[in-house]
Design goal:
Layout (H helix, E strand, L loop, with lengths): L3 E4 L9 H16 L3 E6 L9 H13 L5 E6 L4 H13 L3 E4 L3 H12 L23 H9 L5 E4 L1 H5 L6 E4 L9 E4 L9 E4 L6 H11 L4 E5 L6 H11 L5 E5 L19 H6 L4 H7 L4
Helix pairs in contact: 7-8
Length: 289
């Protein structure tokens, strides 16, 4: 079977140079390995995703010369897949709801940091500091049925007890030069959120369900997601999903060495194209010429 690559943009803004690099690199690697390139539209966030952004994604990718195998997978059309995965994890006793607001969590973290540093995940966010895991089943059910907002969290300790050592195959290079067989440390993330009352899935759950459903063999994405791969490997093991190869590429940074944002007009593909940039110039700008 030929290798399968995918590009998976979110429809919460227009594409920029960072997206162009990832899309072009996926296409280049698929071509070099006589593989397939798939497209996935991550549109599960109803509050931020817009149809006009999806239309613009197709326009920009076609302008870059990309072609992909149909059909395009749109996350909003596969909510049942994510519910099924959550149901399996719940049946294993690995999920629990937490009811604190973001402000309440911030206050809990501040209180704990009065007595010393509170642990943070690889992205710098504090690990969940609450005690929702200790709430009785009856109390959880009552609060959820009352309509109270909640987040469904993975009980990391219980999840890790079900799996052995976790690794992944890295064909790119991580932030500290990691390559080859990389040891995964999902515990660094604490009890991550896998869904919310108003949102049927988190990125972490959706990405591994989608990759398995599309038969993706090679995940090529930005280095900012390198450490998150540990969570993805844990979820793949728990749900019995195949393990793709991973290739994390360098990021395109702005003048202040920050990751590009969709609000950065100077690096937006639409703006660059409107000012006469060519595809060859885009490839040069992202270092793929």
């Amino acid at each position: 079977m030929p290798p399968v690559f995918r590009f998976a943009p979110s429809t919460n803004g227009y594409l920029h140079l960072g997206h162009a690099m990832s899309a072009l690199l996926n296409a280049d690697m698929a071509r070099a390995k006589a593989g397939q390139l798939l497209l996935r539209i991550e549109d599960i966030d109803a509050a931020r995703c817009r149809p006009e952004y999806e239309t613009a994604i197709y326009e920009d990718l076609r302008w870059l010369g990309l072609r992909w195998e149909p059909p395009v997978r749109r996350q909003s059309e596969h909510r049942d897949d994510y519910r099924a995965a959550l149901t399996r994890l719940e049946a294993m006793g690995l999920l629990y709801p937490s009811f604190e607001t973001r402000a309440e969590i911030a206050r809990l973290v501040a209180a704990r940091e009065m007595h010393g540093a509170w642990p943070r995940d690889p992205d710098g966010a504090p690990l969940y500091p609450g005690s929702a895991k200790n709430i009785s089943d009856g109390e959880r059910k009552r609060r959820m049925e009352s309509g109270e907002p909640y987040a469904l969290r993975l009980d990391m300790q219980a999840a890790l007890a079900r799996v052995g050592a976790l690794t992944w195959v890295e064909t790119g290079v991580g932030p500290a030069g990691e390559s080859g067989t990389v040891i995964a440390n999902p515990a660094d993330w604490g009890d991550v959120i896998l869904a919310r009352k108003e949102t049927p899935t988190s990125y972490h759950l959706a990405v591994i369900v989608d990759d398995a459903a599309q038969g993706v063999t090679d995940v090529v994405r930005g280095r900012d997601l390198f450490h998150a791969t540990a969570i993805h490997r844990l979820l793949q093991m728990l749900l019995g999903l195949p393990q793709p190869r991973y290739h994390h590429h360098r990021l395109i940074l702005d003048a202040d060495d920050n990751k590009l944002s969709k609000s950065t007009q100077a690096t937006g593909l639409r703006e660059l194209r409107a000012h006469g940039a060519s595809v060859a110039e885009i490839r040069r700008l992202v270092g793929l010429d």
